Amino acid sequence: MSVFRPLLFKNKVALVTGGATGIGKAITEELLSLGCKVVIASRKEERLKATVQELCPNSNRLRGKVCNIRKEDQINTLISSTLSELGKIDYLVNNGGGQYLSPVADIRLKGWDAVVETNLTGTFLMCKEVYGQWMRENGGVIVNIILDTSRGIPMMAHSAAARAGVDNLTKSLAVEWAANGVRLNTVAPGGFIYSPTAAANYGGRDVFEKARVGIPAKRLGTTQEVASAVCFLLSPGASFISGETLKVDGGANFFPSLDRSR
Ligand SMILES: CCCCCCC/C=C/C(=O)SCCNC(=O)CCNC(=O)[C@H](O)C(C)(C)COP(=O)(O)OP(=O)(O)OC[C@H]1O[C@@H](n2cnc3c(N)ncnc32)[C@H](O)[C@@H]1OP(=O)(O)O
Ligand SMILES: NC(=O)C1=CN([C@@H]2O[C@H](COP(=O)(O)OP(=O)(O)OC[C@H]3O[C@@H](n4cnc5c(N)ncnc54)[C@H](OP(=O)(O)O)[C@@H]3O)[C@@H](O)[C@H]2O)C=CC1
Predict the structure, then answer these.
(1) Distance from the CA of 96 to the center of ligand 2, in angstroms?
(2) Does the structure show a pLDDT above 70 at 14?
(3) Ligand 1 atom 52, closest CA
């Protein structure tokens, strides 16, 4: 059950990238339950269709739109078509993203560029376009999902660099756009929020289970727990919070050792 008051969200329009799977799907579910209209956007049409069918089969409060956030023209169309269909964009959640595991020595330039384009440039383009087409005149709230990069991320250095860029971009925009009524914050999940799609990218549930020892709470995080943090930051309850980074990691950042061999 939602911990938020539905009235605060009723009839708001939210755009969630990567909203068909994992954390994004949990955010979508929470926003729908609060009365929002939601547009989910990502590359694979079949995932979008399946999620729309599962969560909202009999209404058009949930729409899926194919968009690769590495493509500026596709982002432009995503924003303009959302505005022409739904009339406004109150909330943007930049959740779509990812990377692959590799030591830095083996990362090729093409792979580095792919990860930076997806996570940093994609977020920059989404923010810039939604601001230019709507939020500059009308205000709004943006939440960017990153990884917690505060101690670096060995084997994911490309993504860590890109996500740290998103974190800092968020702070700059929070200042630049404050006078236009736009708030932006970052949510930084610790490494191990279990979802089937996330696990599939990293060798299955076992890889996530092994991380428990490094988490003071001794359990994995859930996608719903990330969704709650996102909805708090979107809500009027956070109306004087901007440029902040909220970690959702069960205290893992403060744990002295992430030695996963124990
Ligand atoms: C020890 C376990 C740690 C678990 C940590 C858990 C914490 C984090 C969890 C999450 O982030 S969950 C989200 C996971 N989801 C994803 O990561 C999915 C999205 N990922 C991607 O789409 C890709 O990783 C991408 C690189 C961002 C985009 O890939 P795409 O295939 O679209 O790019 P291309 O342009 O085709 O490839 C460019 C280039 O990139 C290199 N590369 C891509 N994938 C890999 C790979 N798996 N291994 C090595 N290299 C890869 C490669 O150089 C590609 O060029 P070519 O060699 O194919 O010419
Ligand atoms: N699970 C975890 O432990 C953690 C996850 N995160 C981050 O949270 C976010 C959600 O991850 P999670 O739900 O776990 O994993 P998922 O793999 O389920 O989510 C990634 C989503 O991003 C979308 N996506 C990827 N590349 C693009 C692109 N170029 N354009 C548009 N959409 C794209 C994918 O859809 P499609 O492939 O159809 O395009 C997918 O829906 C990601 O940014 C992830 O890195 C951060 C910390 C920890």
Answers:
(1) 4
(2) yes
(3) 111
Atom of ligand 2 nearest to the CA of 197: 18
* Nearest Cα residue to atom 5 of ligand 1: 191
Nearest CA to ligand 1 atom 40: 111
pLDDT tens digits along 138-195: 999 999 999 999 999 999 999 999 999 999 999 999 999 999 999 999 999 987 899 9
Per-residue three-class SS string for 172-191:
HHHHHCHHHCEEEEEEEECC
Check residue 262 and give its pLDDT.
42
Where do the domains of the chain lie, and which CATH numbers do they carry?
Answer: 7-190+223-252 (3.40.50.720)
Q: Which residues are near ligand 1 (CB < 6 Å)?
A: 98-100, 102, 108, 110-111, 114-115, 118, 191, 198, 201-202, 207
Q: Report how far residue 85's alpha carbon sits from residue 13's, in angstroms, rounded to the nearest whole number.
A: 11
Residue 163 CA to residue 73 CA, distance in Å, equals 23
∠ CA 111-197-42, nearest 5°, is: 65
Distance 97 CA to ligand 1 centre (A): 9
For 207-243, the pLDDT digits (tens) are 888 888 888 989 999 999 999 999 999 999 999 999 9
Instruction: Give the ipTM of the model, two decimals please.
Output: 0.97
How distant, in Å, are the alpha carbons of 18, 245, 256 from that of 23?
8, 17, 27
